[in-house]
Design goal:
By secondary structure, the chain is α+β, with helices and mostly antiparallel strands. The chain folds into 2 domains: about 70 residues, Arc Repressor Mutant, subunit A (Orthogonal Bundle), CATH 1.10.10; about 50 residues, 2-Layer Sandwich (Dna Ligase, domain 1). It contains 5 helices and 6 strands, in the order H-H-E-H-H-E-E-E-E-H-E. Strand 2 and strand 3 form a beta hairpin.
């Protein structure tokens, strides 16, 4: 994903702060605003939240529901078919390949004349360490 191209196409400024945040989110699968505030302590909180909203509005990142009170995000990568499993006891999160699952969902949606704009599958589990 080319951040500079996306921002320029949407008449948004390319700043070193936005580029730094983007590099961070590419390296960290799941993140929240507090992660960015801690990592980028030289960037104001308001700027962090504006950048998150800008990235959401331009489909650079997407919200992930992990059943907690903190909004969590991940980079929006159409080439990556994965979903998440969360341990109910220790809150660890793992990714799993979902290409075949998603293929079935999209085929069923087409069959029923639905157009899927977003999807997310979450599985709650108890991990091996917590059993």
């Amino acid at each position: 994903m080319k951040l500079e191209k996306i921002l320029k196409e949407n008449w948004c400024r390319v700043t070193k702060e936005r580029l730094g945040i983007f590099d961070y989110i590419q390296d960290n699968h799941l993140f929240n605003a507090n992660d960015l505030i801690t990592k980028f302590d030289y960037i104001g909180r308001a700027s962090i939240f504006r950048t998150i909203n800008l990235f959401l509005d331009n489909w650079i990142i997407r919200r992930i529901n992990i059943w907690n009170k903190i909004e969590t995000y991940e980079i929006n990568d159409d080439n990556c078919s994965h979903e998440h499993m969360k341990c109910k006891k220790c809150n660890s999160i793992i990714n799993f390949d979902s290409e075949s699952i998603c293929k079935n969902i999209f085929e069923k949606a087409d069959e029923l004349w639905f157009s899927i704009s977003e999807h997310s599958i979450w599985v709650l589990w108890v991990c091996k360490s917590c059993k």
